[in-house]
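Design a sequence for this backbone.
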């Protein structure tokens, strides 16, 4: 019977392999909304799941300089901002080197840092992350919706506007979810104390996770 860690790595490998299939890759990059809102989030999920493959000693070393998850959050934010740019999306849809860079950097520079940083984040950092995520969807969604010109050569104006509509809807849905959790539910934005303790306290005599 496989462990939770092994299951996470297996799921990440399966998702990544499916995304690499030429028909799947072509279909997801043929539409702006599919590349930005399906392919890239799935690549982020691959990196997030790969946190289970990071050795405990290495995770503890990373946690030592990743105070409250800030370092990982900054790295993921800058990398995500690059791949949200119209020029980057355009290049990733037509240039093989950019496509390769996307498949490598999105999991390793966005998903994995977020996977390692989320358990370390306190209430304030997680709240700022969620607010910035909502703001990003609103900013880019509004830009893509109202722009009178095509921002990507590979995508038509109606595809761009449709992507903007989807991003505004997703941003609104996340905002509504956060508001409902804060007003009527229990919104636990505190760090996972047990996981943080495991990251900062490494016992060399403790048997490895199976």
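Sequence:
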């Amino acid at each position: 019977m496989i462990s939770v860690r092994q299951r996470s790595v297996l799921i990440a490998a399966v998702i990544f392999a499916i995304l690499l299939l030429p028909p799947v890759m072509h279909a997801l990059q043929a539409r702006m909304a599919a590349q930005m809102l399906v392919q890239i989030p799935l690549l982020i999920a691959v990196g997030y799941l790969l946190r289970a493959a990071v050795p405990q000693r290495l995770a503890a070393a990373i946690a030592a300089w990743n105070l409250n998850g800030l370092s990982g959050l900054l790295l993921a934010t800058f990398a995500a901002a690059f791949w949200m740019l119209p020029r980057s999306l355009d290049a990733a849809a037509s240039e093989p080197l950019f496509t390769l860079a996307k498949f490598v950097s999105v999991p390793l520079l966005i998903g994995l840092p977020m996977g390692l940083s989320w358990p370390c984040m306190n209430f304030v950092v997680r709240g700022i992350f969620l607010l910035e995520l909502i703001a990003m969807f609103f900013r880019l969604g509004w830009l893509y919706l109202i722009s009178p010109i095509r921002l990507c050569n590979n995508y038509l104006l109606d595809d761009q506007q449709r992507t903007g509509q989807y991003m505004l809807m997703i941003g609104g849905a996340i905002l509504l979810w956060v508001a409902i959790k804060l007003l009527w539910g229990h919104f636990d934005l505190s760090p996972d104390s047990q996981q943080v303790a495991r990251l900062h306290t490494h016992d060399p005599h403790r048997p490895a996770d199976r």
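Residues 203-210 have pLDDT under 50 and may be disordered.
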